[in-house]
Amino acid sequence: MRLPGDTRHAPGPNLAVYQLAELADYDPERLAFLLMADVYNGFGYDSMSVPYVDPNDPKPKLKATAIIGGHLPETCFGTS
Predict the structure, then answer these.
(1) How do residues 2-26 score in pLDDT, each as one tens digit?
(2) Using CB atoms within 10 A of its CB, is residue 33 exposed (0-12), middle (13-18) or buried (19+)?
(3) Residues 37-50 pLDDT 10s
(4) What is the SS3 assignment for 77?
(5) Of residues 38 and 56, which shows the higher confidence score?
(6) Gap between the Cα atoms of 78 and 80, Å rounded
(7) 15 within some domain
(8) Residue 71 within any structural domain of the chain
(9) Closest to 53 measured CA to CA, from 71, 32, 69, 70
(10) pLDDT value of residue 13
(11) Counted domains in the chain
């Protein structure tokens, strides 16, 4: 099966993807973007190729609402 679009070879079995986050500045959507950007960069793609991102945001974020198609439950943000 061939997927549409530009395909690239995997970087190898040792691609390390991680981000350090300070609790005071923790933004799950920003952190998710940074992790996905690392994966995309590992495959040779530009980080702005990550889907579900507003390219006009000064700090790009992976928009969870765009992924799931609606609002997130309040419990996802640590509130009850």
Answers:
(1) 555 677 777 777 788 888 888 888 8
(2) buried
(3) 988 888 888 888 88
(4) helix
(5) 38
(6) 7
(7) no
(8) yes
(9) 32
(10) 77
(11) 1
